[in-house]
Amino acid sequence: MNGRIILCADDYAMAPGISRGVRMLAAAARISATSAIVTRPQWMTEAAAIKPFAPSLAIGLHLNLTSGAPLGPCGLPLRASSLPGIAKLIALSYTRALDPAGLTSEIERQLDAFEAGLGMAPDFVDGHEHAHVLPVIRATLLAVLHQRYGKRLLLIRDPSAPLSQAVRRGAPVVKSLLLRLLARNMRRDAEQAHFISNDRFAGISGFAPSASAVANDFGSAATLDGWRPLVMCHPGLPDATSAKAGALSARRQAEFDALMAATPIIPDLWRPSRNNDGCIDWPMSPLERKP
Questions:
Q1: Mean pLDDT in residue range 16-43
Q2: Over 90: is that where the pLDDT of 74 sits?
Q3: Whether the Cβ atoms of residue 144 and residue 193 lie closer than 8 Å to each other
Q4: Which of 266, 235, 181 is nearest to 34 (CA)?
Q5: What proportions of the chain, in percent to the nearest 5, are helix, strand and coil?
Q6: Assigned CATH for 9-161+173-200
Q7: How far apart are CA 143 and CA 147, in angstroms?
Q8: Around Cβ 41, how many Cβ atoms within 10 Å?
Q9: What is the pLDDT of residue 243?
Q10: Residue 7 three-state SS
């Protein structure tokens, strides 16, 4: 029987070890989805490697506006070869120092790169470090997606969660509260653009690398209710690139090990399939289903 929890492995194509780990999890049917970064030089190679899993794996765009270089000039008041970190991007977005035209061009370039690599539109869209929820970026992204995929059933990630839920699950309170404030009305805005969104969210973590911390995070996430509960995770395997990340690399390995364990750490995992038109058959509430 198909489960409920949409488990998404973020950061595909960020580093070779991350990509390899995600593909192994996909082959073992231990994840529902993966969210891909297309701004890395290795994207086309990694796209070809993940494409065979598309029939039973939702693959989305992990819009990247905070790490490395953009694919072209994107209107940020910084060097064209460097994206700002998330703290700087938050400041730029709330002071309305971002150029919507430049952002539109970069979003289009990343969507073009996704389609060039996989030969299909993304099944969903989210953002690296949740940058897609920020002012100016959010409105620009939804406008681009509506113009480009207006008749396609895309899911847009809403990374907010009630603070009481975060406390109950042991998630970092300050981080959870900040993200809830930044993502305020994200689901409403996605639905107004005629897309869908998850109705529950988990995965915010302090990234402690111990097996017990990982088990606690996944165990509490597995209790989410709702029609489309989405859990993000960050599994991966060691490589020369990710090893530089220190504790985060250890956390990725711990998440991978937990997900690949003989007994599934999330037994209620949703397994996607595609409609005749190639779109993911997302779980829908009775009120959302067309007669």
A1: 97
A2: no
A3: no
A4: 235
A5: 45, 15, 45
A6: 3.20.20.370
A7: 6
A8: 9
A9: 56
A10: strand
Nearest to 42 by CA among 252, 255, 241, 232: 241
Structure tokens at 104: 């539109």
| Phi, psi for 169 (deg, rounded to 5) | -85, -5
d(CA 271, CA 281): 10
103, two tokens = 């952002």
Domains of the chain, residue spans = 9-161+173-200
Cβ neighbours of residue 123 closer than 8 Å, sequence gap 6 or more: 33, 58, 59, 60, 154, 155, 272, 279, 280
DSSP H/E element including 118: helix 100-118
Q: Which two tokens stand for residue 113?
A: 């790169």
Would the pTM of this model clear 0.70, i.e. be above it? Answer: yes
Query: Tens digits of per-residue pLDDT, 204-232?
Result: 877 888 999 999 889 888 888 889 999 99
Contact 142, 156 (CB under 8 A): yes
User: Running DSSP on this structure, what letter comes out for residue 152?
Assistant: S
